[in-house]
Amino acid sequence: MIRAYKFLMRPTVGQAQALGEMLRDHCSLYSGALQERRDAYRHVSKTSIKYGMQSAQLKDIRAFDPDRQGRWSFSSQQATLRRLDKAFQAFFRRIKSGDTPGHPRFRGANWFDTVEFPKDGDGCRWDSTPHDPVTRVRLQGVGHVKVNQHRAVIGKVKTISVKREGRKWFVVLTAEQDRPEPLPATGSVVGIDLGIANFLADSGGGFVQNPRHGRCAADKLEAAQQALCRFPRVRRDKRTRNHQRAVEKVASLHGKVRRQRLDHAHKTALGLVREHDFIAHEDLKIRNMSKTPAPKPDPDQAGVFLSNGAAAKAGLNRSIADAGWGVFLTILTSKAESAGREVIAVDPRNTSRRCPACGLTAKENRPTQEKFHCVGCGHLAHADTVGAINVLRAGLARREAKPA
User: How far is CA 199 from CA 64, 194, 196, 320, 381, in A?
Assistant: First the structure.
């Protein structure tokens, strides 16, 4: 199995400058390759340029500009071109499926923050020896950069990536390792229902409160964003130091909220994996749930639109994004795989409207957001708990229906 590790780097002033130049030059390569594809499609009889054609040009590009493109790893530049090719593949795949995707866009200096090295030892080297207290990663064109390795890397390092987050630099490793020993069996099964009022309700009647990290930081984020908006829109090289501080303040607040959300997701998922052998959850289509409602034109007046509840839906969309269901489910699946637990996603339709006692499914069974009162048998319970029970039953039925 493949496991990712992320460590903080401690570059010197010169190394930090070299890392910034590496990102800038890879961003320039990405934008140049994108421009070439756009020009070829528009002006040369709609000709499509593939990754292989652009990769074959790298040798000439490096020879033409040895001070910028020639100083970096050849394989990392190939990874940047492959990154652009994946963007175009996803673009055409969405077109074939009937969507209306946006065209791959140019990346500015603030939007290109990662450089990948596809193989350890090719332009990079992870140097972690058991007897050396200082861990370093060697990067071509940068040198040996100190790394704050807070845990051991298990397995063989496959790829290395350098990532910038604000003023901090991180190295991300992917390592191939043997499947770990599963945790001891507990004999417990659980179904979970994700929500807004409560982050999680389980089939046993337990609840995990929603920390609402984004809402708690909303006032500070609003003040920081307003301070940033006071500066006029000018070119990057004309921005003042105060403008840069305002940008970093907004990014710092968003980064803190993201880390808090990840920490909560990791702790909640770890608790479920340690306590239960089988976990069932709803197969939520989060992207569809957080879509903006379509406008409603007034049939009687041209150019006038009727109310479509967009304001209320915007508040719900913010709450869904703040809860971070997608991140949590991804982390839960990964931890369950490592621990030898089983996770199954089930159809979420009517899970909070079906009575767990008599099986009656009716809209009237849920008179309020929290209350479940069956109109058939009179069963009374919390609506989220009822949903979690039905999710567990559907998950167990799906597991039993799987072919051996």
Answer: 56, 6, 6, 10, 18
pTM of the predicted protein model? 0.85
Please tell me the predicted confidence (pLDDT) of residue 131. 55
Write the CA distances from 39 to 7, 42, 48, 180, integer angstroms.
Answer: 40, 5, 10, 50
Residues in a beta bridge with 296: 306
At residue 303, the 3 state secondary structure works out as coil
Q: Which residue has the tokens 């320039």?
A: 28
Reported confidence tier of residue 179, pLDDT bands at 50, 70, 90: confident
Closest by CA position to 155, among listed 21, 2, 268: 2
pLDDT, tens only, 182-227: 899 999 999 999 999 999 999 999 999 999 999 999 999 999 999 9
Between CA 123 and CA 1 the distance in angstroms is: 24
Q: What is the mean pLDDT of residues 257-274?
A: 95
Q: Which of 316, 355, 332, 208 is nearest to 279 (CA)?
A: 332
Residues sharing a CB contact under 8 Å with residue 372, sequence separation 6 or more, in sequence order = 352, 355, 365, 366, 379, 380, 381, 382, 383, 385, 386
List Cβ neighbours of 174 (8 Å cut-off, separation of 6 or more): 2, 3, 4, 5, 157, 158, 159
Residue 118 DSSP symbol: S
pLDDT over 90 at 178, yes or no: no
pLDDT for residue 236: 66
pLDDT tens sequence across 86-126 = 999 999 899 898 888 888 999 887 789 999 999 998 999 99
Dist CA 118 CA 12 (whole Å): 25
Rounded Cα distance, 172 and 137, in Å? 11
Distance CA 148, CA 134 (A): 8
